[in-house]
Amino acid sequence: MPVAEKIQGFIQRASWIREMFEAGDRLRAEVGPENVFDFSLGNPDVEPPVEFKNILQELAADKTPGLHGYMSNAGLPETRSAVAEYLSDEFGLNFSSDDVIMSVGAGGGLNVALKTILNPGDEVIVSSPYFVEYNFYIDNHGGEIKVVDTNPDFTLNLKNIEAAFTGKTRAVLINSPNNPTGVIYPEENIRDLSALLEGISSKVGRPVFLISDEPYRKIIYDGVVVPSVFAHYKHVISVTSYSKDLSLPGERIGFLAIHPEVPEKNLLLGGLILNTRIIGYVNAPVLMQRAVARLQGKSVDIGIYKRRRDIFVKGLKECDYDLIEPQGAFYLFPRSPIEDDVAFTREMQKENILVVPGSGFGKPGYFRLAYCVDEKMIEKALPGFKRVRERLK
Ligand SMILES: Cc1ncc(COP(=O)(O)O)c(C=O)c1O
């Protein structure tokens, strides 16, 4: 057998993703790509801000020697300073460049964070629905995922989280704005979770970390504010990337930030920096570090996503889909009209519409739509959604 048994199992578990890709390819070949309505991918289609391309051209023309060499594993001092300055303004705390470590996207940052804090068998509590890769990231570092349900409105259910604690719990991992629901966890959720973590940490005599996965932090609508995790708790590792807000997912650039006043800070930083080095990527891509240093606070035009959200939410509600209007990210997570969300997905494919079953996010009975597509595609697809809804009454 060329691969480990565990990995074979993982391949099997993730096979629905392959199945969906295949269905998409088959449909595109059958009816033409222009007639397939693909809402399955969270791959931002809005172009990066023009400044990004201008900056890249300037950086490419820079003849200073040594620009492409190895560097401090934590990243370029000027980039870390620029990020720290931005974070200080946003959160009203005094972040220094030491509190920031550049990473290979949020995925890379999460792996560095988990590798740094997990002992073998340590548990990480995750609220469903959740980004499916967490299963694999946690396993990568010898951890165990413990999944608990959210409230019916997809906010954190503190009772469920509390009930999932054991002596082995090392972290709670949250993601807000959330993929797949688009929900932003309210301030009281974050405050109560922090109080719970504080109490449990003192009881067990070691800190339980709050890992906050925030790649959608700037993709928010209607003037809502994403509450700060730093305001309530110190054992926080926040993980962010520029994949979504600057539309740079292929460039693999993001960062980790820790609370400036976290106890035993140097040890924590030492672990995060060492793991950046030994996880296999050594440091975040240097060209991108230099680019994002100059793009702090910038983002793509969020109004584009908002218009799509509005069209989609209105259209789906009109044909009687049950859904919570998202306040952020670029996903919708409606209830499947039939219990079997995988069967529902297949029914949608008959209309040349590709959606992802909620089971893929640990939440059967729902489905995810990514609106990283043109408004016109949403409008053209709505009659298909309507027909399926009518067929499944
Ligand atoms: C919730 C969540 N976390 C992390 C990631 C990974 O982001 P990146 O591309 O920056 O590694 C994604 C990507 O879709 C995501 O949705």
Describe what this molecule looks like in 3D.
This protein has 393 residues and is an alpha/beta fold. The longest helix is centred in the middle third of the chain and has 18 residues. It has a seven-stranded mixed β-sheet, sandwiched between helices. A three-stranded antiparallel β-sheet has the order 9-12-11. A two-stranded parallel sheet has the order 1-10. Helix 4 packs across helix 10 and helix 5 packs across helix 9. Strand 3, helix 6 and strand 4 form a beta-alpha-beta unit. The protein contains 13 helices and twelve strands. The protein is globular. The model has no long low-confidence stretch (mean pLDDT 96). 42% of the residues lie in helices and 13% in strands. It has two domains: 136 residues, Aspartate Aminotransferase, domain 1; 226 residues, 3-Layer(aba) Sandwich (Aspartate Aminotransferase, domain 2). The structure holds pyridoxal-5'-phosphate (PLP). The site of pyridoxal-5'-phosphate has 13 residues, from helix 5.
The CATH architecture designation of the largest domain is 3-Layer(aba) Sandwich
Shape: globular
Category from helices, strands and their pairing: alpha/beta
Sketch the topology as an H/E string, one letter per element.
HHEHHEHEHEHEHEEEHHHEHEEEH
Uncertain regions spanning at least 5 consecutive residues: none
Summarize model confidence as the mean pLDDT. Answer: 96
Q: How many structurally independent domains? A: 2
Largest sheet: 7 strands, mixed
Just give the CATH class of the largest domain. Answer: Alpha Beta
**Biggest sheet, spatial arrangement of strands:** 2-8-7-6-5-3-4
Bound molecules: pyridoxal-5'-phosphate
- Structural Rg: 21 Å
- CATH topology call of the largest domain: Aspartate Aminotransferase, domain 2
The CATH fourth-level homologous superfamily of the largest domain:
Type I PLP-dependent aspartate aminotransferase-like (Major domain)
Number of strands: 12
Total of DSSP H or I helical runs spanning 4+ residues: 13
Helix amount, in percent? 40-55%
Strand portion: 5-15%
- Write down the oligomeric state: single chain
Q: Give the distance, in angstroms, between the N- and C-terminal Cα atoms.
A: 47 Å
